[in-house]
Amino acid sequence: MRAMVLDKPAPIENSPLVSKDLKIPEPLEDEVLIKVLVCGVCHTDLHIVEGDIIPPRYPIIPGHQVIGKIEELGKKVEGFKKGDLVGVPWLHYNCGRCKYCKKGLSNLCENIAFTGFHVNGGYAEYMIAKKTAIYKIPETVDIKSFAPILCGGVIGYRALKLTGAEEGQKLGLVGFGSSAHIVLQIALYKKIEVYVFSRSETHRKKALEMGAKWAGKLGDELKEKLDGIIVFAPVGEALVESLKYIDKGGTVVSAGIHMTDIPSFPYSLLYEERSIKSTANSTRDDVEETIKLAIEIPIIPLVTDYPLELANRALDDIKHSKIDGSAVLIIG
Ligand SMILES: [Zn+2]
Ligand SMILES: [Zn+2]
């Protein structure tokens, strides 16, 4: 099978992913073999490929927004059959026994494992997934635009919940890439007003077209105070800048897995019960709820597609905000 493999991390400009021909893997009894059709490209993949976050082993095949068909099932896999359309997100495994799992916080599990990080992911023609890591996807959806729901959508949805923003309130989004443009659609559906901060003029224009109440840059004046802000930009300064826009009691949530250091700031920015919080991974419930919402709304991600061999280019385009919405690899 063809796969884009990371032997060692490097700046994306050096094309660290290498096209290789590998043996098709075989599933264990609690796993399935999936023929990958599409795989969304996530900002986290960029962090892995560039070495901002280090997987437990190399080589590794990234990719954790996979949609494909079940090709082969292990003996202990129930409720699925050959040919079923399934999605595979970031959460590959949680133990169900640790104190976090017992509290329903499987996203913080002590023994957690991730797709395309601990185990090979979907930048390949075939991949293995645990039976607990797959989700049925209706045959009626457009799989190319549905793939980014599986991480961009799920993480954005979890971050939105962590802001506590409710109907009639005001939500800020800092950065307007894959995840943010999906959250905008969820927030509008929940009748939350959306304010978008982006350095990219095309992203600001796109945000307004999609229904944002306001679009500007961090540092611009905004009369309204916001009840919640999600920071997608992996930049510590953006977190501090965001605090200047948040109302008393409001929460600034960072959605990323990696962020540059946060500069010091005066306590007055945080005082009056403002808070800063990070988002880490997602639970099975988050994935199921997001898939359900995505079908119900329906969420329509903007997608730019690339063939598998151009995975480096897709990541480079994300790094330099060259595309609107999400990048997706077309594989099968
Ligand atoms: Zn656990
Ligand atoms: Zn992701």
CATH topology tier name of the largest domain: Quinone Oxidoreductase, Chain A, domain 1
Order of helices and strands: EEEHEEEHEEEHHEHEHEEHEEHEHE
Give the cofactors and ligands.
Answer: zinc ion
Distance between the termini: 11 Å
What gyration radius follows from the Cα positions, in whole Å? 19 Å
Q: Which structural class best describes the helix and strand composition? A: alpha/beta
Q: Please give the count of helices.
A: 9
Mean pLDDT over the residues: 96
CATH class of the largest domain: Alpha Beta
- Biggest sheet character: 7 strands, mixed
CATH superfamily label of the largest domain: Medium-chain alcohol dehydrogenases, catalytic domain
Task: Please count the beta strands (DSSP E, at least 2 residues each).
Answer: 17
Helix content: 10-25%
Query: Overall 3D geometry?
Result: globular
> In what range is the share of β-strand residues?
25-35%
Q: List low-confidence stretches.
A: none
Question: What CATH architecture of the largest domain would you give?
Answer: Alpha-Beta Complex
Number of domains: 2
EC number: 1.-.-.-
Protein name: Zinc-binding alcohol dehydrogenase family protein
Keywords: Metal-binding, Oxidoreductase, Zinc
Family: Belongs to the zinc-containing alcohol dehydrogenase family.
